[in-house]
Structure formats: structure tokens, C-alpha cells
């Protein structure tokens, strides 16, 4: 009888281990990307009211692609407002600044304790946050060094997500550049918010292809859309993934981009969600 009881106990614990492993294999996390949340009115430093009804609590990483209000960083009071709603000062909140967030970066840094470009790592996913306003579309100097450093050292991540405001990959590409006027908030030109020829395909993209060659998925995630379209998705022939999402205040069909990460299985999927 004692041997039988021992067998039952062993079987019980084996079942616990099995179901524990099954549960672990299904462990998931949700990440959010949202952009261009501003009211397009210089006198109103607020975000779209319908987005503010969106429940942020399920998302362990929140990514914002720029243009949070018309002048997000000009006043500490505006940043207090944004921080209270979007958790801007949390380390798990990633923010790529746009042209409407650029009037006083020192105010922003007082909330985030970060530069406007940085790297971040969580759940075996590496993130690079770029400042596409800093050098007129070019990624140079310390920003370029950051991309080089991450691309040189990344080995164990399952994915690399590059978060940025401007859709740099639309320019200097024969096929994609034809879509600028139909997709990007900023048109071609040399203005502060415009898209212009830059070093993305000559210096940044080759580094990303090196990362991809190590079986690490590469996702470029932009935020300067919403006025013309609310979402963009393309997988290039080389496997690099291009995504963008943004809204236009007080209009129908606004979307956010939600990522589901199966952490143990190292799988990442995404969906554009209406709200």
C-alpha cells in the first residue's frame, strides 16, 4: 500500500510539472504602438479623446511614435498631462519623438531620464528608439553609433524593433517612394516634418540586414501617419518588416497596433485594432 501511495504522489507531482510547463509555454505579453494622438490645433495641448478611453492596462510595453499633442514638450504642465495618461516616465514606455514633440527636449528628458534616442531590451526583444528629427532625416553621429553597437552585439534576441517617427524607408526606394503622398503625414521636401533623401538605405539598412542574417526578425515601426491612412504593413523580399500606425483626432477608423508576444516560444504577431 505504501508503494502504491508513493506512486500516486509521484504521479501527482509529475502532473503538476507537466501542466506547469504547459502553462509556461503559453506565457504571453501584449505590447502597444500608437501615434499622432494630437488635436491639430496649436492652442489645445490635448490628445484625441477617443484614444484616452482606450484601456492601456493590458500592455506591458507601450510604444508611442510621436506627435502626442500639438506642442508636447513646450510646457511641463503638458508633459504632466501626457505622463498621467500615457505613463511616459515609465521605463517600459518607449517614445520616438516627432516634430510636435521637439520644442523643448530637456523638459522631456526630465520625465524620461533618457536621450531622444536609446536602446532597450525586454523579454528577449531588443528595441532601438530613433530621433528622426535630429539631423534632417539622417541617422548620424551618436545615433548611428548606437545602431552599429546594437547590430554588432545583438545575438540572443528573437526580434529587433526599431521605433521611429518619420517613415524614412519610403524615401530613396523606387517602389516605396511613390507611396509617400498617399501614406506619410509628411510629404517630400526639406521642411522639419518632411521626408527627404537620407542615409537610411546606405548606412542603416545594411546593418539591419546583418541582424536579419543571424535569424533575428527585424521590424521597422514608424508613427508619422494617420492623416491619410491609419496603418501600413509590408514585408520586404529580404524579410525586413515595415509597419506604421497612427490616428487622426475626431475621425472614424482610427487604429492602434497590438503585438502579442509568446515569450517562451519567441514568437511575435501583431494586429491593427480599431478603437
What structural keywords apply?
single chain; disordered N terminus; 6 helices; 11 strands; 275 residues; six-stranded mixed beta sheet; 27% helix; alpha/beta
Describe this structure in words.
The protein has 275 residues and is an alpha/beta fold. It has one domain: 4-Layer Sandwich (Purple Acid Phosphatase, chain A, domain 2), CATH 3.60.21.10. The protein has six helices and eleven strands. α4 (141-153) runs parallel beside α6.
In short:
Helix content is 27%, strand content 23%.
Topology (elements, then pairings):
Elements: H1 2-25, E1 28-34, E2 59-64, H2 76-86, E3 93-95, H3 105-112, E4 118-122, E5 125-129, H4 141-153, E6 159-164, H5 180-183, H6 200-212, E7 217-222, E8 231-235, E9 241-245, E10 255-262, E11 267-274
| Sheet with most strands: strand arrangement | 4-5-6-7-9-8
Give the total of domains: 1
Q: What's the CATH architecture name?
A: 4-Layer Sandwich
**Helix and strand composition category:** alpha/beta
CATH topology: Purple Acid Phosphatase, chain A, domain 2
Terminal Cα span: 61 Å
Amino acid at each position: 500500500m505504501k508503494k502504491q501511495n508513493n506512486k500516486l504522489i509521484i504521479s501527482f507531482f509529475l502532473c503538476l510539472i507537466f501542466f506547469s510547463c504547459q502553462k509556461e509555454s503559453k506565457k504571453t505579453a501584449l505590447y502597444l504602438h500608437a501615434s499622432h494622438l494630437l488635436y491639430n490645433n496649436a492652442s489645445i495641448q490635448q490628445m484625441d479623446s477617443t484614444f484616452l478611453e482606450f484601456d492601456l492596462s493590458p500592455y506591458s510595453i507601450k510604444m508611442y511614435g510621436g506627435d502626442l499633442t500639438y506642442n508636447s514638450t513646450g510646457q511641463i504642465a503638458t508633459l504632466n498631462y501626457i505622463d498621467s495618461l500615457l505613463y511616459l516616465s515609465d521605463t517600459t514606455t518607449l517614445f520616438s519623438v516627432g516634430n510636435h514633440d521637439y520644442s523643448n527636449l530637456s523638459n522631456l528628458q526630465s520625465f524620461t531620464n533618457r536621450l531622444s534616442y536609446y536602446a532597450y531590451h525586454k523579454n528577449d526583444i531588443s528595441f532601438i528608439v530613433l530621433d528622426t528629427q535630429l539631423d534632417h532625416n539622417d541617422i548620424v553621429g551618436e545615433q548611428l553609433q548606437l545602431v552599429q553597437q546594437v547590430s554588432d552585439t545583438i545575438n540572443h534576441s528573437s526580434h529587433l524593433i526599431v521605433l521611429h517617427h518619420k517613415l524614412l524607408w519610403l524615401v530613396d526606394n523606387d517602389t516605396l517612394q511613390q507611396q509617400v503622398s498617399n501614406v506619410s503625414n509628411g510629404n517630400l521636401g526639406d521642411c522639419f516634418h518632411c521626408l527627404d533623401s537620407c542615409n537610411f538605405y546606405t548606412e542603416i539598412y545594411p546593418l539591419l540586414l546583418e541582424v536579419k542574417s543571424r535569424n533575428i526578425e527585424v521590424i521597422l515601426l514608424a508613427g508619422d501617419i494617420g492623416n491619410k491612412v491609419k496603418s501600413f504593413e509590408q514585408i520586404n523580399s529580404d524579410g525586413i518588416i515595415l509597419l506604421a500606425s497612427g490616428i487622426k483626432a475626431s475621425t472614424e477608423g482610427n487604429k492602434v497596433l497590438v503585438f502579442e508576444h509568446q515569450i517562451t516560444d519567441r514568437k511575435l504577431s501583431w494586429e491593427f485594432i480599431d478603437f
